[in-house]
Amino acid sequence: MDTDVKPALLTTDIPEIRSVGVVGAGQMGNGIAHVCALAGLPVTMVDIKQEALTKALATMARNMDRQVNRTLITADQRDEALARVKTSTDYAAFADADFVIEAATEKEDIKRAIYKALIPSLRPSCLLATNTSSISVTRLGASTDRPEKFIGMHFMNPVPVMKLVEIIRGIATDEPTFQAVKALAHKLGKVSAVAEDFPAFIVNRILVPMINEAVFALYEGVGSVSAIDDAMKLGANHPMGPLELADFIGLDTCLSIMQVLYDGLADSKYRPCPLLVKYVEAGWYGRKTGRGFYDYTQTPPKPTR
Ligand code: NAD
After folding, report:
1. Cis peptide before 158 (omega within 30 of 0)
2. Quick one: pLDDT at residue 9?
3. What sign for the dihedral angle of Cα 231, 237, 238, 239?
4. What is the predicted pLDDT for the residue at 218?
5. Nearest CA to 90 among 17, 19, 23?
6. Band of the pLDDT at 4, cuts 50, 70, 90?
7. Mutation pick for ligand 1 pocket among 47, 51, 87, 105 (CB with most ligand atoms within 8 Å)
8. Each residue of 174-219: pLDDT tens digit?
């Protein structure tokens, strides 16, 4: 018998995901809960902050209303989906989940602490995923009790609108976990792209250094905020300018991704722009805090430089 040939995976080997847990009710967490609930899956969302959960539910309802108005879904589908979402500040609420995805703040120590705290509440068969934009899936998985059932499932923002999901296997991720998560992405109406576990994967490896370069252009006085954004919208046909996009993603997240690229690839071309660092130090994270490269307390948002 040829021992090098792996037996084909039977469909019965692939775990079916029938219920979902989401950690972190920020902009990504509420989007992930939104698409899972609309696909018919019961969802439990956990955050350390009750106010984040309350805000997430309101955001989901508002975004689904918008989908109803655009006749993308019916009012009944909205009501049924919203009824499928439960929230809690306690990981014990994940006791029945087949799959838990962590979409908390992009900091490795925070994510590791979350896994440590939630693992005792999970069934042994529960798959665990991270929505990290950049951190090593292998390293995060190794900090859990189930590296073979741990995977990167990277949704794009805004989740209900963006088609792509990057799927990233850690070195220990097993084939049934990969197939189950691929099937989940398909069920959610997404197209998956498989990325290797290198810093920032595919989309952010290319996108975030471009944003960082736009911040350098601003820092060096090459152009104003409006000039840079208009130039890229009209000159490169980008739907959003890079600084507007940075505010949309969150400047804290953009900076974390640049730091992961800089540390992980040890190449000075990934040096975060000092102006990006300053904005994050000031707490100017973009849209989510009301100020970034634009001031969102004004309508339309006013460029800050
Ligand atoms: P966010 O700041 O909007 O939300 C993070 C949430 O995590 C907050 O509600 C916070 O209260 C919660 N949180 C922090 N510590 C926690 C803990 N110990 N337990 C439970 N909840 C905790 O951030 P976001 O933009 O939603 O990003 C979340 C993740 O998704 C990050 O890993 C980020 O890299 C990734 N991501 C972000 C984008 C984007 O465009 N913003 C896109 C793809 C992936």
Report:
1. yes
2. 76
3. positive
4. 98
5. 23
6. low
7. 105
8. 999 999 999 999 999 999 999 999 999 999 999 999 999 999 999 9
Distance from C-alpha of 234 to C-alpha of 225, rounded to nearest angstrom: 14
- Closest ligand 1 atom, CA of 46? 20
Average pLDDT over residues 23-31: 97
Across residues 268-277, what is the average pLDDT? 98
The pLDDT of residue 13 is 85
pLDDT at 6 over 70: no
How far away, in angstroms, is 102 Cα from ligand 1 center?
8
Using a cut of 0.70, tell me whether the model's pTM lies above it. Answer: yes
Q: Is the peptide bond before 274 cis (omega within 30 degrees of 0)?
A: no
Residue located via tokens 């490795």: 108
Place of tokens 């948002």: 301
